[in-house]
Amino acid sequence: MKLTILAVGRPDRLLREAIEEFERRAGHYWNLDVVEVRRERARSAPDERVRDAESQRLLERVPAGVELVALTRTGDAWSSTRFARYLGQKAVRSEPGAAFLIGGALGLSDDVLRQTDRRMRLSTLTLTHEFARLIFAEQLYRAGTILRGEPYHKGRT
């Protein structure tokens, strides 16, 4: 099973090392591919046009046959163990995988959200897309350790 993180833009240097570290760690547990698409640079463009352009770039890179999951503040809240069970069940069923979409500073377009199979919320707080990517990479790593019974995860649920 292959997991793909599709994100708008490259992280700035402040968070880049941490993101790369957790994506590397997660790669020990999952066949993980990370795809970054270009940010829309039109400063005077309406927010909707920027969001649509970035979202379209994400959709163009989604692998065929995978479940599409939007990381969005309007998604369902999952615990770390629920997320681990979700990934474990996909792996056991030999499903093709999942693609996780992380929009840019303006989020994902309504069109993309309508096309997703699931919506997942990482926090009730509003996060920058770079922090969302860091938290998500850490949760992928945590899910791997939970499924293997390794001591990283200290939570009960």
Keywords:
157 residues; alpha/beta; Alpha/beta knot
Compact description:
The protein is α/β, with parallel strands linked by helices. It is built from 5 helices and 5 strands, in the order βαβαβαβαβα.
Write structural notes for this entry:
The protein has 157 residues and is an alpha/beta fold. It has a single domain (2-148), classed as SPOUT methyltransferase, trefoil knot domain (Alpha/beta knot, 3-Layer(aba) Sandwich), CATH 3.40.1280.10. It has helices at 13-26, 47-60, 80-92, 110-115, 129-148, and strands at 2-8, 31-37, 67-77, 97-102, 118-121. A 5-stranded parallel sheet has the order 2-1-4-3-5. Strand 3 (67-77), helix 3 and strand 4 form a beta-alpha-beta unit. Helix 1 runs parallel beside helix 5 (129-148). The two termini are 25 Å apart. The model has no long low-confidence stretch (mean pLDDT 94).
Secondary-structure class: alpha/beta
Average pLDDT reading? 94
List SSEs in N-to-C order: EHEHEHEHEH
Q: What CATH first level would be assigned? A: Alpha Beta
Number of helices: 5
Give the strand order of the largest sheet, numbering strands 1, 2, ... along the chain: 2-1-4-3-5
Shape: globular
What is the fold named in CATH at topology level?
A: Alpha/beta knot
Q: What's the domain count? A: 1
Largest β-sheet summary: 5 strands, parallel
Q: Which residues form runs of ≥5 with pLDDT under 50?
A: none
Gyration radius, in Å? 15 Å
Helix content: 40-55%
> What distance lies between the first and last C-alpha atoms, to the nearest angstrom?
25 Å
